[in-house]
UniProtKB/TrEMBL annotation:
<keyword id="KW-0547">Nucleotide-binding</keyword>
<dbReference type="InterPro" id="IPR051120">
    <property type="entry name" value="ABC_AA/LPS_Transport"/>
</dbReference>
<feature type="domain" description="ABC transporter">
    <location>
        <begin position="2"/>
        <end position="249"/>
    </location>
</feature>
<keyword id="KW-0813">Transport</keyword>
<dbReference type="InterPro" id="IPR003439">
    <property type="entry name" value="ABC_transporter-like_ATP-bd"/>
</dbReference>
<dbReference type="InterPro" id="IPR017871">
    <property type="entry name" value="ABC_transporter-like_CS"/>
</dbReference>
<dbReference type="Pfam" id="PF12399">
    <property type="entry name" value="BCA_ABC_TP_C"/>
</dbReference>
<dbReference type="InterPro" id="IPR027417">
    <property type="entry name" value="P-loop_NTPase"/>
</dbReference>
<dbReference type="Pfam" id="PF00005">
    <property type="entry name" value="ABC_tran"/>
</dbReference>
<dbReference type="InterPro" id="IPR003593">
    <property type="entry name" value="AAA+_ATPase"/>
</dbReference>
<dbReference type="GO" id="GO:0005524">
    <property type="term" value="F:ATP binding"/>
</dbReference>
<protein>
    <submittedName>
        <fullName>ABC transporter ATP-binding protein</fullName>
    </submittedName>
</protein>
<keyword id="KW-0067">ATP-binding</keyword>
<dbReference type="InterPro" id="IPR032823">
    <property type="entry name" value="BCA_ABC_TP_C"/>
</dbReference>
Length: 249
């Protein structure tokens, strides 16, 4: 699905990513773990066009996407959540989720202006899909609320609804359960299990090792911008380099 080859990102002289190479196979959950500052979010940014690698290539479904702008990459079917939430605070929860349907014309100005019967019909269908996505995360009763007034845990789940509503080919999740309480974590975990069972391809950045070990088919470990291990959860758990990276924090 996705190939990273020698991806580096330097900030000033400092390498946040240093020649990272690995592949994300289709239909699997690949977990990306590593201590704080390892470069996990930077890597997601470099895949999604939020940031541009200083060197190396990103190939998605056989097509080089390195350096493409974020909106073009999103249209190819790569969706993400942000570690630090990025919802539009003033518009409704439902409208935030509709933004995840840009590939299907969910945000088209023309559609909004013309309001032709066919387009109104499409708009209704898109709203229905957005409502279904909210329902999956138990948020449909808050669909009309401005996003700004939601509690933190709800905002995290709106991000997930927005990222998943368009059935992306590749879903990149940056710490989806960070800051959630036990109940919320369990609910999100259950949704992620469902996505996995439905054959979605996911890159999961997460510190919650229980979740990682239960969900991931493969684990990639970053430390100081370098990929230090790739393997099954069991292989990675017993890898001395990985233990050292975590204990040395
Ligand atoms: P992680 O997500 O694994 O915790 P990050 O990708 O956020 O790590 O950060 C990796 C390194 O890159 C850190 O040292 C961080 O300070 C640095 N970094 C990230 N973004 C920027 C930026 N925009 N400018 C300068 N340094 C950055
Ligand atoms: Mg991060």
């Amino acid at each position: 699905m996705l190939h990273l080859d020698g991806v580096s990102r330097h900030f000033g002289g400092l390498p946040a990513l240093d020649r990272v190479s690995f592949a994300i196979p289709p239909g699997q959950v690949t977990a990306l773990i590593g201590p704080n500052g390892a470069g996990k979010s930077t890597l997601i940014n470099c895949i999604t066009g939020v940031d541009t690698p200083t060197a190396g290539t990103v190939v998605f479904q056989g097509r080089p996407i390195t350096g493409l702008p974020a909106h073009r990459i999103s249209r190819l079917g790569i969706a993400r959540t942000f570690q630090n939430l990025r919802l539009f605070p003033r518009i409704s929860v439902l409208e935030n989720v509709l933004c995840g349907l840009t590939r299907e014309g969910g945000q088209s100005m023309l559609m909004a202006m013309l309001r032709l019967p066919y387009l109104r019909h499409r708009e209704r269908l898109l709203k229905l899909r957005a409502m279904e996505a909210l329902d999956r995360f138990h948020l449909s009763d808050k669909a009309s609320w401005p996003a700004a007034i939601l509690a933190y845990g709800d905002k995290k789940r709106v991000e997930l609804a927005r990222a998943t509503v368009g059935n992306p080919h590749l879903l990149l999740l940056d710490e989806p359960v960070a800051g959630l309480n036990g109940e919320e974590t369990a609910a999100v975990g259950e949704q992620l299990h469902r996505l996995r069972a439905a054959g979605h391809t996911i890159l999961l950045v997460e510190h919650d090792m229980d979740l990682v070990m239960r969900l991931a088919d493969r684990v990639v470990v970053l430390d100081s911008g370098r990929c230090i291990a790739v393997g099954t959860p069991d292989e990675v758990r017993s890898n001395p380099l990985v233990l050292e990276a975590y204990l040395g924090q």
